[in-house]
Structures are given as structure tokens and as C-alpha cells.
Amino acid sequence: MAFAEGSANDWLPLTMTDGFHVTHAQGTAVYGVFLTAMLIARIFGGAFLDRYGRVPVLRLCTAVSVIGLSLVIFSGNLTAAVIGVFLWGIGASLGFPVGLSAAGDDPKGAVKRVGAISFVGYCAFLVGPPVLGLLGEEFGLVRALMIVLIGIVLSGLVSRAAKPPAHQKNVHDTNSRSM
Predict the structure, then answer these.
(1) Which one of 26, 27, 123, 150 is separated from 113 by 20 to 30 angstroms, measured CA to CA?
(2) Which domains are seen in the chain, by residue range?
(3) Distance between CA atoms of 155 and 47, rounded to whole angstroms?
């Protein structure tokens, strides 16, 4: 999800101007939609995490992000793409922070796990966008976003790793098993 966030931070305005033929100001405004979605989800995401637990929320975020990014990539329609950008932002918002939180659950080895998650997340955030730019040169930025879509799907497939350890049983464990 750090790759999904970093890609939007680096490429979304240009993707909108090149792929949807909007002005630079409009492309920047669409980026503002992404940032607004991230802000909303991070403000209210804690309540969802408290109520449903990490794994169900991460799975929902994955689904929302996949739907949103798919609208951007495949719709060809500006209105649908802007809605997609909003959904992409909502979906991408909690992955990295929740992953860091999960890595620190068990004090034994927490420093190594948090360090590993930070390293992978920041590499994805910093290295992924230039790779996306190279792919964009070859295939166009809208099509290059398919690599981000694949990354989002992969993050959803490993969301179970965010489940709290067995010794931290709580109401969320019951909810995450039922979903």
C-alpha cells in the first residue's frame, strides 16, 4: 500500500493530464481528491479498526483501492476516474500505518519487524514511483498503474499477517475470523 500511496503522490497529477487530457490545475485538483480521501480515512479509520479489527479493515481497504484504481485505469471516463481516485485514496490510506502497528504488537522482535516493514514500505514508496515512471514512458502512465494494482492485490493477499498475536486475544480476533 505504500507503493499505492507513493505512486499517487508522484504521478497522479501527470497521469490525469496525460491520460485524461485535463489541465495541470485540474490534475492537481484530482490529486487533492486523493489526499482528501486519505485524510478522511485516516481520521475515521481508527474507529473502524477498533470495531472490526485489522484484517477485515485491511481487506476492505484492498477491495476499495482495487475498485478505485480499476476505475482510473479502465474507465476512460474522467468522472469515473475521479471517483476512482477517491476510492483509491480511501483504500490506500491505512495499509502502511496498520502494517507498522501490527509489526510492533509483540515486544519480542518488534524492533526488527518494525524496521523490516519500514524498510520495505519506504523502498516501495521511494523506488516504486520511478519504476512506474519508466513503465509510463513505455506504455503510458494510466496503463503503467496496472503494476500498482497488482501490488495492491498482493498486499490484500497478505493482510492476514496483521492479525494480533494469540496472546493478545480480543473482540477483533472473533470478528476477523468470521469475515
Answers:
(1) 150
(2) 2-165 (1.20.1250.20)
(3) 22
Q: Which of 92, 40, 42, 44 is nearest to 66 (CA)?
A: 92
Q: Give the Cβ contact number of residue 135 at 10 Å.
A: 17
Listed in sequence order, the DSSP H helices in 53-160 are 54-74, 78-92, 95-103, 110-139, 141-144, 146-157
Handedness of CA 50, 52, 54, 59 (dihedral sign): negative
- The number of angstroms, rounded, from the C-alpha of 52 to the middle of its chain's C-alpha atoms is 19
The angle formed by the CA atoms of residues 50, 54 and 56, to the nearest 5 degrees, is 105
Q: Under a CB-based contact definition with an 8 Å cutoff, are residues 69 and 152 in contact? A: yes
Q: What values do phi and psi take at 79, rounded to 5?
A: -60, -45
The pTM assigned to this predicted structure is: 0.84
Q: What is the pLDDT of residues 73-132, one digit of tens each?
A: 999 999 999 999 999 999 999 988 887 777 777 778 778 878 877 788 788 878 888 899
Confidence category of residue 167, pLDDT binned at 50, 70, 90: low
